[in-house]
Amino acid sequence: MIRWLSIFCLLITTADLQAQHPLTFFTKTEAATVKNDLAKYPLLKRSYAGIKKQVDEWLDKDVDVPFPKDPAGGYTHDRHKSNYMLMFNSGILYNLTGDARYALLVKKMLLKYAQLNPGLKKHPEATSSSPGRLFWQALNDANWLVYTGMAYDLVYNGIAAADRKAIEEGAFKPEVDFITKDLSGWFNLIHNHGVWACAGVGIVGIATGNKEYVDMALYGSAKDGKSGFIAQLDGLFAPDGYYTEGPYYVRYAILPYYLFANALQHARPELKIFEHRGRILQKALLAGLQQTNIDGTFFPLNDALKEKDFTTNELVTAIDIAWAEYGEDMGLLTVAKKQDQVLLNKGGASIAAALTSGKEVPPFYPYKSVEFVDGVKGDEGGVSLLRAGKESDLTTLIYKYTAHGLSHGHFDKLNINLFDKGNEVLTDYGSVRFIGVEQKYGGRYLPENDKYASQTIAHNTLVVDETSHFGGKEKEAEKYHADKLFSDIGRSAVQVVSASTDKAYKGTHLQRTVYLLQLPGGKKLVADIFNIYADTAHQYDLPFQYKGQVIHTSFKYQAHLNKMTALGSKNGYQYLWKEAEAKVADSLAQFTFLNGRTYYSISTLVQDSATLLFTRTGANDPNFNLRREPAFIIRKKGKDQSFINVVEIHGKMDPVIEISSQSYPSVQQIKLLQQSSDFTVVQIKLDGKELLIAQCNKDFAPKTKHITGNEGRKLEWAGPYAVWYEGKQL
Amino acid sequence: MIRWLSIFCLLITTADLQAQHPLTFFTKTEAATVKNDLAKYPLLKRSYAGIKKQVDEWLDKDVDVPFPKDPAGGYTHDRHKSNYMLMFNSGILYNLTGDARYALLVKKMLLKYAQLNPGLKKHPEATSSSPGRLFWQALNDANWLVYTGMAYDLVYNGIAAADRKAIEEGAFKPEVDFITKDLSGWFNLIHNHGVWACAGVGIVGIATGNKEYVDMALYGSAKDGKSGFIAQLDGLFAPDGYYTEGPYYVRYAILPYYLFANALQHARPELKIFEHRGRILQKALLAGLQQTNIDGTFFPLNDALKEKDFTTNELVTAIDIAWAEYGEDMGLLTVAKKQDQVLLNKGGASIAAALTSGKEVPPFYPYKSVEFVDGVKGDEGGVSLLRAGKESDLTTLIYKYTAHGLSHGHFDKLNINLFDKGNEVLTDYGSVRFIGVEQKYGGRYLPENDKYASQTIAHNTLVVDETSHFGGKEKEAEKYHADKLFSDIGRSAVQVVSASTDKAYKGTHLQRTVYLLQLPGGKKLVADIFNIYADTAHQYDLPFQYKGQVIHTSFKYQAHLNKMTALGSKNGYQYLWKEAEAKVADSLAQFTFLNGRTYYSISTLVQDSATLLFTRTGANDPNFNLRREPAFIIRKKGKDQSFINVVEIHGKMDPVIEISSQSYPSVQQIKLLQQSSDFTVVQIKLDGKELLIAQCNKDFAPKTKHITGNEGRKLEWAGPYAVWYEGKQL
Q1: Model confidence at A363: pLDDT above 70
Q2: I need a labelling partner for B401 at 20 to 30 A (CA). Which of A575, B64, B112, B610 fits?
Q3: Taking CA atoms, what residue in A is nearest to B72?
């Protein structure tokens, strides 16, 4: 009897929940708690006041719902974008204040959309394969559905039945139909666009009580589970939470992931969506945060705008929901404090409370050395973040050996980037795009994005014969990933990752092993051993995109003084001005630059001969779309080749007290003592001391013993690598 | 009887003071107060702890006093530089702790200098006309005297008489003799070097009780008052405190000015040095602070490194002394808070106390529109800072019509610079120098400083026939200054300054009038009317050095795609790459760029024809000494010519929410309605509204009535200018 009663109660509750509004953003109970907390926690109060100020300006005004006309950056685009945030915020205020004017504002706008939407066709500025109706691309229409769906749900109780019908059929149905039917292929994509599309349709489904919409959102338009939100949770992340498009796009996708999961948690709690796949949403968020610089900007892997940091709305939303779902986390609190705003929901209120408590919040996110795998099964390469130092003195070496990363991927297998003290030192151009700027092709990706920024030469990895990896063909690149050979990131003295690919170029095996070393005394340096094994002779270019000013070179170069030409004619080379070049032979070539207040020196071993190039972006750029950025390129020729480089972090230039310390590199000599298919042994002399690196090129078993060298000098070690400093193994 | 007694007491006191040590940095009584305050005020405590940590590291060590060998940035240079600060700080600690080890440290170092100095000859790296001995230039030797003199005085009581003699005769006398005799011409200069030299000799004089030294320091080596510190107080500042070398160098000179004045206040209070010339030292400090950007960096007029801001040691010193001498000042407190360190003296303790009080300190220095005159009598032109907006939204238009500014002056008569929201928008290159970097010519000014940065084309003012003002000859430039014709900076709607020169080029009269306007609704813009009257035909270039990315132009241009050449061959033109050019005729040419999150548009009237050039620095730069910076150059030909430009500040690009607003300029048309020797009348149409500017070109009397126009449109106004917006006079 009691058992039956329980089941009966459960049914009632579920039915209640189904009927209840709001459900998407928060519930009635949650809203009441937030309301109650408003006065208590300053950050919550400020966040509330900020929204209220924005919305109150519109309370007595007639908000324009214009016929779509302009691309991003233009009036109609920005108006519709502002409109959905205005409706959403007004909906929140309706629940927190009970003031009917907020519901009225939303209702009036929704009724205008109900008039507008049924008559819409493809947007006049649409250029992509997924055109929008309200906006130039369907992605923005999906954004609109996410926020407008929540807004409708939030004011549902304040709208008369007849109006509800008009809105559901006029404002929402045409958009949902368009996206799920006309654009069903796009809707079913396992891609950040698909996540937005499913979240939009699903949230509207919950808001309007339309089970069909929610089911399509969860399981794809065919409802077979091959696509839809669940498939996106399963298909876009590696098991450890790495998002295959890279950190810039997880920042973007995390928002619909969390908002839709949050709505599902209220509407379909039985899904236990936040527990799905071993809490994949929590892993995704934490992996995204690890992939940021100490200033909070996301590492610019693949297409990425460098301005985006973890204070964006997307991360505020994800963190505030995660805090409530997964519990307190000091790292999240550090980020939340920098965000200096919270959502007006349970998590936001709880974070605001934690920040009010007066407890010390650490100044930096708890960054650590970490490796992420790529691919659904985690078997498609990955990315390693090697870190040394802490807080404002953190050094991060990024080594990327992932899969391609879908349509926003770059041709940059075995690429490295270096961040130090919050500065980008060895850089990635990011993407060529002025987001939201109408004059720059409506804020879309510019032609130079494909033609330059995604090409191999725009990165810090090897280019063979002036062509990009996989011939610069996305379809080909999608088939392969690089492979990690071995790594060891556990000890601060030596961190190492080795990876290879033999698919980037036909008949060519590329193998790069990077070491982040912290020598006794604290000196940090990167040792970079790039071995190439090829069937035939080629030209090899290894670029270092650096940020900083040229201070010194150990070699003489010829600068192009009165006249400058482009370095090449295709595959990105046409965008580089050749500022200077040098021919060097049998030497140690060193180049020192200054970035911020720190010196960086690249010491490169030239065994036979090499050409060294100083280039700068900006050639063949008729619309000034590119920033002017320098690179230092090491060019060698041959069949099998090795690039042995040491990147040293040294000294300090203090322009205030006008003192420079350790402005010269310590490296005095680099010798390649052995280079065979079995081993590479490199001897580096710095400050009169010997740094010796031995690594295996074939046998990466963790414990195998190796012996090499000759009678004069025998080297013995176990495992895939060994590093000695002044004769002592580190 | 009482009167006699007073005089007797006064004599005693003076004698006491003379004999007493320390006297230069602080007195015994002052030291006791500071000691007493240490525990009370966190900032004072932190400043003390910082110094103590530095000095304590050396207490048990033997400090090297090497034989001078290296240029700036090299070991011996930096060691001697560190040494004098170490001795000075150790001297302070001796007085605050009573710990004899601090005196011992200084004594041991001074005895080494007493051994070293008598044998020194000209420094092996000396290249200037004022070579040093301990350092490559005498200026650094003067720095050494200032701090070492104070150090000696601070530990005087802890040194035995025999050692004192050795130090005074071995360490100080050779340096003082060298500077006052061998380099007497340099010592007697009315120039920042001279200020340092006199302060050094004078402080050593006070420390060693050597009246001769103090007298030479005060009145020049001939003691006739034609040079020396008093003459420097009288000769380097305008009556309002403007320092003729510009803000970067007042930052540098303010330190010896204040330190020597501080020492004199103790040793020769009868001089009332801080009251001298109507408190010229206070005026100098406040004028220097007004010439900073909201981030604290000094405006880069003349030779200037842009990294220098008001948190440097020089300004900490000046502010802490000024606070004690001239009383509390909320503006100084704002700066002191940003400095986050204080001197361990009376003023420093008092500032630390004020910052402990919990009283709110304004976030920004109290910037205002202000005009400074140049020249000892204030009759050699000047500089106007027009400001609009406040706090982080401050706009500053700098208009420079000064004298040349001695050896660090640039050939930039009638130059403008624009700062907005803390960003440099229309820029000045500053100087070409990597201070303290040995690899860059020992940290000296680089050849490109004279050849590019000081040339007219590196600025935002008119270049005639590709030659610099005054033929680029300093001697010629020193003879002249520009003249202000009229100005009005009192009203926020319209601020205006007009100035002219007919000496920059022979037979050519240049007259530029700049308006900083804030229209009803808040829009800020600069109207820039540059009239040229010449005897013969010339080529005129008006460059706008801008910082930002090209967003849009209203005109078609030809970009140089595969090959780029230098713009010219001399007078700075050889350093500019010609990236793109356009020929335009009879039109309004508009160029929009994005800087930070704000759009800026330059709208220029082309009445007949003009060439528009996009350039970038970096040509003919074989050592990569120049930063790569862009300029937009308007080139016209003719005899009399007018350049009518409107620089608009507009819109916002928010990459985080991805919305751009008002990204297009408002200006739709510019018409030169009248251009005569009497009047210039310009009509600007923006957003469909009319902005009308009428100005007098000859009669600048403040109240004269003017009538111009024709029957269709008659204009009447009083005074040198009038501005109407939508028919209403602003």
Answers
A1: yes
A2: B610
A3: A659
